[in-house]
Specification:
The protein is an alpha+beta fold and 236 residues long. The protein is built from seven helices and nine strands, in the order ββαββαβαββββαααα. It has two domains: 65 residues, Sulfite Reductase Hemoprotein,Domain 2 (Sulfite Reductase Hemoprotein, domain 2, Alpha-Beta Complex), CATH 3.90.480; 144 residues, Sulfite Reductase Hemoprotein, domain 1 (2-Layer Sandwich), CATH 3.30.413.10. The chain binds iron/sulfur cluster.
């Protein structure tokens, strides 16, 4: 890949300027990392045709195509026929999901199905900061649910909803808000906690910092949840 210093690079719609180069990256949308044969073929064709030097699987279960010439960006997008996966403003950046009971012997819940519904529900939602979601089909948590802003963990009795996790430079293990929920109830609770976060967090305040500042007891009270999970179980 040729590095040509041009600073700052002009903006190109649907692409991210690569610092210190005259090339761009794009991130096609792949909900929960699920990809079809047609999409794989389209990606391979674009990589060859436009001589794209780097195709990178990201931690958010997307594919970044890096090193595209500015003039090629529109044609690459047109050939792929895929939506954009990069969040362009504060909101849900990605939903990552493990294979769950569709493809893993340990799976206790349908993490891919719930991940798809989460993508659908929260795509484009405006929030104070970026929000990452991790969905795991069993407590082994391959979807990294406890270190995502919103986490869902499948257990035999249903979904556990986790809030306020972070895997960045100041990692935090998220707090469990409720357990034993069916998919509809889990999605409803995710919607409520995101609305509370949207209405009360400072701009750019990630959920982990929001929970640290407010305390999880305050979040639970605002959502009308019992003070602890044990108390919730006793009420069932
Ligand atoms: S979290 Fe559980 S269901 Fe999901 S991939 Fe890991 S072991 Fe399988």
């Amino acid at each position: 890949m040729t590095i040509t210093r041009k600073n700052p690079a002009p903006k190109v719609k649907g692409a991210i300027a690569q610092r210190g180069t005259d090339s761009y990256a794009i991130v096609p949308r792949l909900p929960s990392g699920v990809i079809t044969a047609d999409q794989l073929e389209a990606l391979a064709k674009a990589i060859r045709q436009y001589d794209i030097p780097i195709a990178k699987l990201t931690s958010g279960q997307r594919i970044a195509l890096v090193g595209i010439k500015a003039d090629d960006v529109p044609a690459v997008w047109a050939g792929l026929g895929m939506g954009e996966g990069r969040a362009v403003k504060h909101g849900v950046h990605y939903v990552q999901a493990c294979p769950g009971n569709a493809a893993c012997g340990y799976g206790q819940q349908d993490s891919l199905g719930l991940g798809a519904r989460l993508e659908e529900m929260f795509n484009g939602l405006d929030l104070p900061a970026k929000v990452k979601v991790g969905v795991s089909g069993c407590p082994m948590c391959c979807g990294e649910s406890y270190v995502r802003d919103i986490g869902l963990v499948g257990r035999k009795n249903g979904w556990t909803v986790v809030f306020g996790g972070n895997a960045g430079g100041r990692p935090r293990v998220g707090d469990e808000l409720a357990a034993g929920l069916d998919a509809d109830a889990a999605l409803a609770l995710v919607g409520r906690v995101l609305a509370h976060y949207r209405d009360n967090a400072r701009k750019c305040q990630r959920t982990a910092r929001f929970v640290e500042a407010r305390g999880i007891a305050s979040v639970r009270a605002a959502l009308d949840l019992p003070e602890t999970l044990a108390e919730a179980a006793a009420q069932d």
